[in-house]
Amino acid sequence: MKKALAFAAAMLLAAAVVYGMIRLEIGGPEQQLARAIEKEASKAEKAGTAVYLKDHTDFAWDKAYVFGPYTDPRTINTAVGYNWTDRHLSFDDADQIIVFCEKGKVVRHILYSGSMRNNLYDRALSPEEAVIWP
């Protein structure tokens, strides 16, 4: 009985470790979205085309905001219209913070590390305006 319990516990621990490794590799929804957009931006850069964020999101949003690396929480909160975060979201020169909102509330944010030639920093963007030119 003790051997069976020890074996079951070891298998459960092994499964948890494997799940954790897969989760780190795949990432959560934010990391998956950022990687998908970065991959599309890489293709678009070679083709001379743009990436429309609305084509790569599977959730509802009506405004997007793009912030540069190291943007302080107060600036982000002012832009989105309420106290959403109290921490810095980016600590890397390559990151752009993209915040998606629906009906005045943040629904998702990503750290985008791909190329972006156009300036999207100065205002809220509708789904039609949220276009990255890599």
Topology, pairings included?
Blueprint: H1 2-26, H2 29-47, E1 51-52, E2 63-67, H3 73-80, E3 96-102, E4 105-112, E5 131-132
Antiparallel strand pairs: 1-5, 2-3, 3-4
Describe the structure.
Helix content is 39%, strand content 18%. With 134 residues, it is of the alpha+beta class. The strands form two sheets. It has a three-stranded antiparallel sheet with strand order 2-3-4. The chain has a two-stranded antiparallel sheet with strand order 1-5. About 7% of the residues have low confidence.
**Straight-line N-to-C gap:** 61 Å
Structural class designation:
alpha+beta
Averaged pLDDT: 88
Strand order of the largest sheet: 2-3-4
Order of helices and strands: HHEEHEEE
Fraction in helix: 25-40%
Which blocks of ≥5 consecutive residues have pLDDT under 50? 17-26
General shape? extended
By DSSP, the count of extended strands is 5
Q: What is the count of helical runs?
A: 3
- What does the main sheet amount to? 3 strands, antiparallel
Radius of gyration: 19 Å
Proportion of residues in β-strands: 15-25%
Summarize the model shown.
With about 130 residues, the protein is an alpha+beta fold. It has helices at about 1-25, 30-45, 75-80, and strands spanning about 50, 65, 95-100, 105-110, 130.
Task: Please name the defining characteristics of this protein.
134 residues; alpha+beta; three-stranded antiparallel beta sheet; two-stranded antiparallel ribbon; 3 helices; 5 strands
